[in-house]
Write a structure and sequence with these properties.
Blueprint lengths: L1 E2 L13 H4 L18 H26 L1 E2 L39 H10 L12
């Protein structure tokens, strides 16, 4: 692994900033015995500082731009290739097989088609 900007690692000490800040910055109490000790807040404060430091380390790492070694990868496809063609030309609006009107088959006619085939069926609008 190589770094495109190794100078960015000089910024890693920035990750210690959350630990250098005081917890109660801006709050001054004249008598500390008045404020009870809170373990849950201490743990939450420490976790927030750790998460902040990890975020800063991640940002510095991203600035350094790590890059793997260059290598050539040859991929050969096997199997079926699918091509999907959409034809919206005027010729696609023309009917197929010489029918000029849409055929409507009712339930009774559909049963006849299934039993005997298309030959004996009489379509509306055609003369036999």
């Amino acid at each position: 692994m190589t770094l495109l900007h190794p100078w960015a690692l000089l910024l890693l000490p920035i990750a210690t900033i959350p630990f250098l800040l005081k917890r109660n910055q801006g709050q001054v109490y004249s008598w500390l015995a008045m404020v009870p000790e809170d373990k849950a807040s201490d743990i939450a404060n420490f976790l927030i500082k750790v998460i902040s430091a990890l975020i800063l380390i991640s940002l510095v790492g991203a600035l350094a731009s790590p890059m793997g070694a260059p290598k050539k990868i040859v991929k050969v496809g096997k199997g079926a290739q699918t091509v999907f063609v959409i034809d919206r030309s005027v010729s696609m609006d023309q009917p197929f097989a010489g029918f000029h009107r849409p055929c409507v088959i009712r339930g009774v006619d559909a049963e006849r088609v299934l039993r005997k085939g298309l030959e004996p069926l009489r379509f509306r609008g055609t003369r036999t």
